[in-house]
Amino acid sequence: MWVAPPTTRSDQAWTAQQARNFTMAMEDMGIKAKYLVHDRDARFGRKFNGILETSGARYVQIPRKSPNCNAYCESWVASVKRECLDHFVCFGEGHLDHILQEYRRFYNHYRAHQGKGNAPLRRLPRMPKGGEVACESRLGGVLRHYHRRAS
Description:
Elements: H1 12-29, E1 35-38, H2 46-54, E2 58-61, H3 71-83, H4 93-109, E3 133-138, E4 143-148
Parallel strand pairs: 1-2
Antiparallel strand pairs: 3-4
Helix pairs in contact: 1-2
């Protein structure tokens, strides 16, 4: 999952810049995006789609008034709201960005996903049997990950 920084003034220029940021982040991580699914919002203009096409990703627009065609994204938005944002009052764009980036790191590295056999998206090192259980918390304990320490 990749999350763009929040803004109150999104337009075609802002979304084009986010497309550039996204493609650079994917290159840095060594990941090649194949598809980008988005709705028919006017902010996703030709420049946005052109930047994605030059990076090798194909953009796919979902049909009008059909949120079920973008079920993965809708599910992620519901997860971030329920598991994270419902527990905070945000005091500006910077605060919201911090919360969203922490949740993104947690989601990508530690959160169990049912579609992957309740395993995280990225494999964690094999935990030793026995040993003390430790808790790693983020955002004041809203997000928690438990693991065993080496004995």
